[in-house]
Amino acid sequence: MQIFFSNDQFAHAPASEINRGEIGSPFERPERASSVLQAIERAGMGPAAPAQAFDDEAILRIHDAAYVAFLQSAHAEWRALQRHGPALANTWAVRGMRGDRVPTSLDGRLAHYSFDVMTPLDDGTWVAARASAHTALTAAASVASGDTAAAFALCRPPGHHASADCYGGYSYLNNAAIAAQYLRDRGARRVAIFDVDYHHGNGTQSIFYDRGDVLYLSIHADPATDFPYFLGFADETGAGAGTGATHNFPLPRGCTAGAWFAAFEEATVRLKQFAPDALVVSLGVDTASSDPLSHFQLETPDFERLGTSLAALGLPTTIIFEGGYEVARIGGDVVTVLRAFDARREA
Ligand code: OKP
Ligand code: ZN
């Protein structure tokens, strides 16, 4: 397993996050990456190789150009207004409003391009988000070139909630979507994205919803109770050319390994029917029993089974890190998945 990381990802270090009505310390913080890096080194799988730089073209294959320009300049515009701290919207468009309009003022554009209060746009956010996408691209490139059959991109901030032109859920650029498109552009005819994060990857789903060349499979907490609330239901199965190329497996809070792996097996049937040339995994380990944001009950042996099961799919695999918020635990859980994957591949 080739492992990639970019130190520029540490540049995103917001001081605060609004959570449960209070301004507190952020869940999505730089120490998450340090935890995974340390566990990788301790397991003898390191050091992680540095991500390469890419021009913005690979990002613009997925994201709207005006959105990318906004992410790049928003915090400087915020500072120019003599504001301190992270840029944050104060309004969102809802039912009956003209959410498709792009306001001209900064506050209006913040409202247009974001969808929640938990995802601050700070000083280093753009640098880190771009580095996170480059980490994903470096991993995808190493798989696409045939250098390696599997690669892990230690991405942070995560990406699966970001759509073509909207950020939220700690995500700004959709690393998994960018990697999948890169694999397509480098010759894979069909790519499957398997999202095993606790949360539904609303951004990834929406990006590929009407495309038949990228399959999106997701096992996640029922949006009736959990973020992102407004996408990820089982009746969303794709549109147009993408009809039948989205499959959601929402599960109730409290879900244990039995039900989770039953969904995994169902998703695997869909994946095999699709017969992809390459696999992208959105790996969140916030399904762990003790995760502070989540309500599933996966334990360490379940992460081992996850790694084995992903490897058994037998595809060139690019694994993209998404969520997981118990800093003391996530490194170990990620390494458990990666080691089990390698052990199965070598067997
Ligand atoms: C991002 B990823 C905390 C509220 C809980 C968290 C959702 C973001 C998860 N302020 N919502 O999918 O792990
Ligand atoms: Zn998550």
Can you walk me through this structure?
The chain is an alpha/beta fold and 347 residues long. The chain has 10 helices and 10 strands. The protein has an 8-stranded parallel beta sheet with strand order 4-1-5-10-9-6-7-8, sandwiched between helices. The chain has a two-stranded antiparallel ribbon with strand order 2-3. β2 and β3 (22-24) form a beta hairpin. The longest helix is centred in the middle third of the chain and has 20 residues, at 125-144. The model has no long low-confidence stretch (mean pLDDT 98). The structure holds {5-[(3-aminopropyl)amino]pentyl}boronic acid and zinc ion. The site of {5-[(3-aminopropyl)amino]pentyl}boronic acid has 17 residues, from β2.
Q: How do the helices and strands follow one another from N- to C-terminus?
A: EEEHEHHHHEHEHEEHEHEH
Structural class: alpha/beta
Measured by DSSP, the beta-strand proportion falls in: 5-15%
What fraction, in percent, of the residue positions are helical? 25-40%
Radius of gyration from the alpha-carbon trace, in angstroms: 19 Å
Mean pLDDT: 98
